[in-house]
Design a protein that fits this description.
Chains A, B: Pathway: Carbohydrate biosynthesis; gluconeogenesis; Carbohydrate degradation; glycolysis; D-glyceraldehyde 3-phosphate and glycerone phosphate from D-glucose: step 2/4. Chains A, B: Its EC number is 5.3.1.9. Chains A, B: Its main location: cytoplasm. Chains A, B: It catalyses: alpha-D-glucose 6-phosphate = beta-D-fructose 6-phosphate. Chains A, B: It holds the Pfam family PGI. Two copies of one chain form a homodimer. By secondary structure, chain A is α/β, with parallel strands linked by helices. Chain A has three domains: 212 residues, Glucose-6-phosphate isomerase like protein, domain 1 (Rossmann fold, 3-Layer(aba) Sandwich), CATH 3.40.50.10490; 155 residues, Rossmann fold; 31 residues, no CATH class. In chain A, 46% of the residues lie in helices and 12% in strands. In chain A, strands 1-10-9-7-8 form a five-stranded mixed sheet, sandwiched between helices. A five-stranded parallel sheet of chain A has the order 3-2-4-5-6, with helices on both faces. Strand 11 of chain A pairs antiparallel with strand 1 of chain B, so a sheet runs across the interface.
Chain lengths: 428, 428
């Protein structure tokens, strides 16, 4: 990706960062880069994520999928086990990928009714093999297939860790499997089997996604002024310290909408620690100009707005009209209108003293998307280094998991008792 | 809706609000209610929104739609002209509603290819009749229909103001029309033709939606302790003043996902003014427990988390399994699991000193959804009253509109020059 942080400079926006500050920060970026590079080299926990472009073997994925030519793929997974895969297939326009990444019974039932089960590939993803939501959905899907007379063992692929109930199940039924990579937290696993199986199953070019990731790897250097990923990370960090506790992430492309969701997990789960971390806000251009822009311009000065667009896209001409007030649109294209709105919004934020950063990719294709995912991960890891937090863990989610398990009779957990003791103050 | 703000009290969370403060605040709520009630009575600009359940005539909508029995409806509109309609159809499960609420050429082309144009109803919505995105998409859709041999004038319904290009067009081609209500900003128009045409065209019970709205109207009283809408608004306001500058809105139901988007516009565009306004964050339970919960528990103490669920839903049993570690799930239901996670998450937030509010509706049906929309609007209006801002305007979005128009050659605008003068600081 290319980064333009001109509108995040203190000379443009009062809550921006000065060039001089960034130059001082760059020394810390250099040291952070050394740690990151060593972590990649040694495949240290977490940092190993940035080694995925070389570690992931597309042949392993293709082999697991041999013999399948599904009309639809349903990924049964949640969080990092679903978002990367959804992001890749949506960005590449691989039609037919569905996700069961919630336990809403209405949605699960609806999807099972809609899917052509006899030509659907079920892609179950859970590192531990015990994720309650994923396993529950899988049990439901499996039963629905059996009831529909479809042999589920012939239509299921499993991506999991080296051991656990899903691994056992795969062994017992001789199911094709892929491995969740070692040392890579779920939200950093898009460039592994976790993120690539559905795209591969639907005929997309996962090799090019990995090549894009490898280019991202090549782009890392010890200076933010020479590394787009670090430029973005360092500016986000500097702005967070200057009060931008929110990061509104606004792609100007519908195909990148799941990327916002993926980014939101990456940012929130990695950086939301020790009372720190920007709150990621998912938005979409140009749509959210008619929803969020009022707030971004006139609300609190606590935001960084990240605007992302492809430089080229397939376009659609706007037909001429004889309506005077609209004649300026005739001869334009939808893409031209979208680009004008992108630049107008960016300038309108700057004019309101609202710092913003522009990210650009050449076009939305397999290679650029692979590189973009890689570089946003590197940006996030840099912010974690600069903030001095543990980027790769998510300890705060355990409390709720234990409580839920206790409530469902899955063991004695004191957290479940806290649920029973809730303070109520009802207005009905 | 029922509101439980027990977990937002200062006795539970350090950044919460005390009962004593709320009692003092209630006097201001009483005075605000007087202004709101008088505004509704007099149909004053903005407040007129809360009169829609009595003002909207479902027969006008049904008459405009006479003779149509579409397989699909495509709403061409943006912001408030699309979100309410999307929220209603999705919540009620009216299948077949699509929206063109962006000018992404790839998405517009994809949708036009997918839709059965000969049995699609085009629903164009713009109060002014000049919204660039909407009119551009409409020109493209119209041409696509003509190219497909479909007479667009026989498959188009228009919802617009009393005058403007869309009104002229409707007159010229004798198209069926509905009116955008007077005195009602787009984001408050869900309970008018703007929000109800697609649901009506797809056979849903819009009368029940309006009845729900009317119940919301009945529920308003001068005290927050007796009015769920005001309880939610007052607590949100009190928490914003205590540092909760973010409001994460988390329905535990996929069918309510567009409601989060609708809420985000309602909250951001109404309250994002004068350096105030909570930043709405769209999230979804249980999915985002595996994405955002780490941040909500361990990040900055600058959040209110709003948890919303239906008390009843169609459920799906989880089949038994012989896997020991998962046996506790057998005999449960997906809905039971979702509810356990809802309560576990709520308690886990409280245990981390993170204020949260529970909103509940009986079930997701036309009446509850109508009432919910109404009550959230009333809550928002109350926050605006308490904050002393102009809730019903959105002046900050004009700058960008002028800039974009200037860039596209639609006139001379100094804003367009500011776009050309952007400060660049690129890293590639």
């Amino acid at each position: 990706m290319d980064v333009d942080f001109g509108n995040a400079l203190a000379s443009v926006a009062v809550t921006g960062v000065s060039e001089a500050s960034l130059e001082r920060l760059d020394r810390r970026v250099g040291r952070a880069h050394e740690r990151i590079a060593a972590g990649i080299e040694d495949r240290t926990f977490g940092y190993a994520s940035l080694a995925l472009p070389e570690e992931t073997d597309p042949t392993e994925i293709r082999t697991a999928l041999e013999g399948f030519d599904p009309e639809a793929v349903v990924t049964v997974g949640i969080g990092g086990s679903a978002l990367g895969a959804k992001t890749v297939t949506e960005a590449l326009g691989c039609a037919g990928h569905h996700t069961l990444d919630n336990v809403d019974p209405v949605e699960t039932a609806r999807l099972l009714e809609e899917l052509p089960l006899e030509s659907t590939l079920v892609n179950v993803v859970s590192r531990s093999g015990t994720t309650a939501e994923t396993l529950s959905n899988f049990l439901v899907v499996r039963e629905a297939m059996t009831e529909a007379g479809v042999e589920w063992t012939e239509r299921t692929v499993v991506t999991t860790g080296d051991s656990g109930p899903l691994r056992d199940l795969a062994d017992r039924h001789d199911l094709p499997t892929c491995s969740v990579p070692e040392g890579v937290p779920g939200r950093f696993s898009a460039l592994s089997a976790v993120g690539l199986v559905p795209a591969a199953a639907l005929g997309c070019d996962i090799e090019a996604v990995l090549e894009g990731g490898a280019e991202g790897r090549q782009s890392l250097s010890p200076s933010l002024f020479e590394t787009p990923a670090y430029a973005y990370g360092a500016v986000a960090y500097a702005l967070e310290n200057r009060g931008a506790t929110t990061n509104a992430f606004v792609p100007y492309a519908e195909a990148l909408e799941p990327l916002s969701e993926w980014f939101a997990q990456l940012w929130a789960e990695s950086l939301g620690k020790d009372g720190l971390g920007q709150t990621p806000v998912r938005a979409l251009g140009a749509t959210d100009q008619h929803s969020q822009l009022q707030l971004y311009r006139a609300g609190r000065k606590d935001k960084l707005v990240t605007l992302l667009r492809p430089r080229e896209r397939e376009d659609v001409p706007i037909p001429d009209t004889d309506v005077d007030e609209l004649s300026y649109l005739g001869g334009e294209t939808l893409g031209g209108l979208l680009d004008a709105e992108f630049e107008a919004t960016e300038a309108s934020l700057a004019a309101a003293d609202q710092p913003n950063v522009r990210l650009e990719i050449d076009r939305i294709d397999a290679e650029s998307v692979g590189q973009l995912l890689y570089e946003l991960e590197a940006a996030c890891i840099l912010v974690g280094e600069l903030s001095g937090i543990e980027t790769f863990t998510q300890p705060a989610v355990e409390w709720g998991k234990r409580a839920a398990r206790g409530l469902l009779g899955g063991g004695e957990f004191e957290e479940a008792e806290a649920v029973e003791g809730k303070t109520s103050r009802r207005v009905e």
